[in-house]
Amino acid sequence: MELQNASPALVLTGSQQSQGSATGAESKPKKKICCACPDTKRLRDECIVEHGESACAKWIEAHRQCLRAEGFNV
């Protein structure tokens, strides 16, 4: 069990180092796209369910801007 507990820490440390070494405009996102910007994602999804996609351009664009700020190319 100790190996299993140590393994995630080693993997996490390795991924943190690779993220820390990336600099500039080409830095990789720190999160998965599904987990980034939960607030704007929730607002966007609720609007689309209630009013349809065409009525929610404001929330869709707000979510895209948030994702871009997190480092995603959308």
Task: Describe the secondary structure blueprint for this structure.
Elements: H1 2-21, H2 38-51, H3 57-69
Helix pairs in contact: 2-3
Region (Disordered): 1-30
Subcellular location: Mitochondrion intermembrane space
Protein name: Cytochrome c oxidase copper chaperone
- What is the CA-atom radius of gyration, in angstroms? 17 Å
Mean pLDDT: 76
CATH class of the domain at 31-74: Mainly Alpha
Shape: elongated
Biggest beta-sheet profile: none
Order of helices and strands: HHH
Distance separating the two termini: 41 Å
Q: Helical element count?
A: 3
Query: What ranges have pLDDT less than 50 throughout 5 or more consecutive residues?
Result: 1-25
Binding site for Cu cation: 34-35
Region (Disordered): 1-30
Protein name: Cytochrome c oxidase copper chaperone
Subcellular location: Mitochondrion intermembrane space
Short synopsis of the structure:
64% of the residues lie in helices and 0% in strands. It is an all-alpha fold and 74 residues long.
Describe this structure in words.
- Helix content is 64%, strand content 0%.
- The protein is built from 3 helices and no strands.
- It has a domain at 31-74: Helix Hairpins.
- The longest helix is centred in the N-terminal third of the chain and has 20 residues, at 2-21.
- The model is unreliable at 1-25 (pLDDT under 50).
- The protein has 74 residues and is an all-alpha fold.
- It is elongated and about 35 Å long.
